[in-house]
Design brief:
The chain is an alpha/beta fold. Strands 3, 4, 5, 6, 7, 8, 9, 10, 11, 12, 13 and 14 form a 12-stranded mixed β-sheet that branches. It has a 4-stranded mixed β-sheet with strand order 19-18-17-20, covered by helices on one side. A two-stranded antiparallel ribbon has the order 1-2. The model has no long low-confidence stretch (mean pLDDT 88).
Length: 427
């Protein structure tokens, strides 16, 4: 009961904070900054920077490696990496995610690149997270709603939030989709939250008559939602597909009523590190003003984002045109002058999709400067030939010659991992 009261309290706080921010006032956000300063004094890693003057943009920029290397020093509860990792790995193996260290939940993230990350959340932080999800993702309603969450790991807080109005049902993505289809047919959820790769399987099952569902809201999480996948899902579900931009480092953004992602700038500080000369693509550098157990201060994400200007919804919060992928998956080639040429994943996505209308699924993997692997799933026998020819033509126009493309007979996608259609796997 106390946890639900906390959620209610934070739900009101979040709504008020959003109203203040969109009204142009930084009053409440500045209060969160002062609160973060007090918490950082309990972090051996950050305490010296607080004592030397509290200016956020003077703090060091960190990444996932630093985050994990300094795990013991960064967190404010004197927790040790070995102890937390042991608990998280046991939970992964047993699929029982209920054990905690005192009041701290420990989560394990494999990450898109497969590198393990640990995240810590207190009861207070879990209540704040639920409040944000209720406000910006699920929405409040007096009608009873059943929510199907497709996740790689269950979480204690879903059970704690159960009420007469909300039912959370966990679907383990490592389990068989056939079993999920049976469960979905019986449950008839009002809201489905899942990765695009899972949503596509559900939509295909609806298309083939295996499932009879008409959910009121579809929410895409975890993976990049490409325009072609979004279009397919919206055609099958007959509604806008909403998105949540969330990772180990926190709840970062959610879609507005127009389906455009907006950063939660009422409790996040966002800096942009541009990665192209045109200054259109950037890495976000995140400071989360709500996280205190494991502070997230000037954390640089490897995601490639493109900012959108003037969203029709009128929100002052920064809008995202698209999440293109990760910088790890920028493909690198050598031209005739032996110069390195870096090409963004979205270029290859567009080439493949525009090459042939019959392409259903695909994956392009770079193994070396002149060696690609290509998987194409299509209703047309000619699709692979058309796509590979288009790729070779694009590379030759950029001065890259003699590229070998190997055909993959089956999809390299592994259940439980994030689906990446363009990957750089060069050693």
């Amino acid at each position: 009961m106390f946890f639900k009261l906390q959620i209610l309290y934070f739900l009101v706080s979040i709504k008020v904070g959003k109203w203040f921010f969109n009204s142009g006032s930084m009053f409440l956000r500045n209060g969160l900054v002062r609160r973060l300063k007090n918490h950082l004094k309990q972090s051996p890693f950050y305490k010296p920077f607080v004592n030397n003057g509290f200016v956020i943009n003077s703090f060091p920029i960190v990444n996932k490696k630093i985050f994990m290397d300094q795990f013991d020093q960064m967190n404010t509860r004197s927790l040790k990496l070995d102890q937390c990792m042991e608990l998280a790995l046991k939970a992964e193996a047993s699929r029982d995610f209920s054990p905690m260290i005192r009041d701290i939940s420990v989560g394990l993230s494999t990450g898109t690149s497969g590198n393990r990350g640990l995240f810590l959340t207190s009861v207070r932080e879990r209540a704040m997270w639920v409040s944000c999800i209720l406000d910006r993702v699920i929405g409040f309603s007096f009608k009873k709603r059943k929510i199907a969450f497709f996740l790689r790991a269950n979480n204690n807080l879903y059970k704690a939030v159960q009420s007469g109005l909300l039912e959370f049902h966990f679907f383990d993505i490592f389990q068989s989709m056939d079993d999920h289809i049976l469960k979905l047919n019986k449950l008839k959820p009002n809201i489905i939250v899942a990765q695009p790769s899972v949503l596509i399987q559900i939509a295909s099952a609806i298309q083939s008559g295996q499932i009879f569902l008409s959910p009121g809201k579809i929410i895409s999480v975890a993976e990049v939602l490409t325009p072609e996948d979004k279009s397919f899902l919206e055609r099958i579900f007959l509604q806008n597909v909403h998105q949540v931009y969330q990772c180990t480092e926190g709840f970062l953004a959610a879609t507005c009523t127009y389906g455009i992602l907006h950063f939660n700038e009422d409790f996040l500080i966002i800096e942009k590190k541009y990665i192209d000369s045109e200054k259109t693509r950037f890495h976000p550098i995140i400071t989360d003003l709500l996280r205190s157990t494991q502070p997230v201060v000037r954390y640089e994400l490897n995601d490639i984002l493109i900012e959108k200007e003037n969203c029709a919804c009128g929100s002052r919060m920064m809008a995202i045109e698209c999440i293109e992928g990760r910088s790890d998956d920028v493909l690198v080639f050598k031209n005739q002058r032996n110069e390195k040429i870096k090409l963004f994943p979205d270029l290859f996505r567009k080439i493949i999709i525009l090459s042939d209308e019959f392409v259903i699924d695909y994956c392009l993997i770079q193994k070396d400067f002149d060696y690609l692997k290509l998987y194409i799933h299509s209703d047309s026998f000619d699709s692979y030939k058309k796509v590979s020819a288009a790729l070779i033509n694009e590379l030759e126009e950029r001065g890259v010659e003699n590229t070998f493309i190997e055909r993959l007979g089956s999809s390299p996608f592994v259940i439980g991992e994030k689906k990446r259609r363009v990957k750089n796997e060069m050693c």
